[in-house]
Amino acid sequence: MAPSGGKADWLSRHLRQAIADGRLVVGAKLPPTRVLAAELGVSRGVVTEAYRRLTEDGHVEGRRRGGTTVVAAPLGGSMTPSSYGPAAYGCAVHDPAPNAPSPAPPSAPARRTRPRQTPAPPRPPRQAPLVPPSTSATQHPAPPPAPTPPSHLTHHASPAALFSGTPGPEVFDALRAARTRIDLTPGRPDLTAFPRAAWLRAERAVLAELSADDLGYGDPRGALRLRRAVADWLARSRGIRVGPDEVLIVAGTAQALTLLHPILHADGIDSIAVEDPGSLGTRQHLLNGSLTTPPVPVDEDGVRVDALHATGAPAVLLTPAHQFPTGVVTSGERRRELLHWATTHDGLIIEDDYDAEHRYDRPPVPALRSLLADRVCYLGSVSKLLAPALRIGWMVPPPRYLPALTSAKRFTDLGNAVLPQLVLARLMDTGQLERHLRLLRSRHVRRRDAMIDAVGTHLPGAVVHGAAAGLHLTVTYAQDVPDTELAAAALAHGVKCQPLSWHRQLSGPQGLVLGYAAGSTSAVSEGVETIGRALRELAGSRAGRSSRAGRPSHVE
Fold this sequence. Notes:
The chain is an alpha/beta fold. 38% of the residues lie in helices and 11% in strands. The strands form four sheets. The chain has an eight-stranded mixed sheet, with helices on both faces. A four-stranded antiparallel sheet has the order 12-13-16-15.
């Protein structure tokens, strides 16, 4: 029986679950919208909306005379169809139980012997908002200059020094340490909104129940209560059906990547393709693990799979739910192409789900991990939801990697601190975390809208990207001003932000990546106004120099 409200969410969630656990197999046809609506006692519009969401997610595909057909691979591979009543379509009242844990594979994955495969012929590139049409799918940039030594930057570096040269790993520390009146750094959550009272209540409750044994060394995989809570959270919010034994608690995405480095090398993976533009910090983590990072252009549908083929890389790191920094959501067709690449090329997808909870103008998009468990390593954390200082995240790796990752976590730190894990688990189990998320969404929408209005007023002609979700906007502009110069000028005027070029390996438009979550609406508006004034000054100065350079000299 359908609930009284949120019927489209309810139906699309159950259909995703039916696809994930194999009750709806690839090739199965969904019933006509009129038929299913009558069976469930809902309006036809509810079914139509649910089918639309599944089409956008890449789970199903509408075919003119063939109806709506399942095209996503189930978690466990090929399975036999079940009978086709309402329950077969995932419409039973109760959710199915999470998958049972997979049998433990060997302690380390066998090293793959990967035959060199001929890249598939590239498709014609599509015009991308942040990738110039001239960018070739097979283009590889010249090797970047070596990062500036850490001694180049101090916590008191000047704005010009901070944004000069190739950014090294110390650049983020220096930017965080820079004192400014307005911080528009991307990825920074509203730390003033941290639920201190709820955290304290949960901590007191946990301590009251804690046994003496709970204060000893814990499971290196993480506290069972948190792993169970994370598994439930992922099932509700990301469509991922796993048991607690498939979840590994880590100290954020940074540690997850560090744990992966030696395991990937042992599996014959020495190169991980990355989105371009894509996170500089993530790329630095991969390079620190001696993994090369060939760039793959991103267009309006997500990462270009033809370009991914051309790199020859055996793995790719993606942010498909809200691409950083463009904000693009990977389309259903592109998701199918990615899953086909992973299946046919023995490829690995590392899915960084860094801020998928923060969405405002679109329905949730299920994680790639929900579609192809054996080929996707899923990463998530509470850094953008609560606070980076907690250093709590999780990973759901392919089953073949789990024993080696558990061993790596054991020898790294014996597991995360147990008490914060149990407090977080209680916040998840009691619904406090979801209430906190609803509060954040309402704040973020107001601040995002203030930033968009300010861009329209103070940066006329600029283009805003990625407004439907996340904690930041990317803004590109047409003026002939390097974005590093603009970021330095903004910092000199008391506003922190990041140049888009920091996150590129390939050439592309100039722009800034602007975070709006951490500031008030007035601070966000004032920050953009300051950036607009700095851009006009720089553009005018460059135009004046160009005019003087072109003026003929007079000889008397």
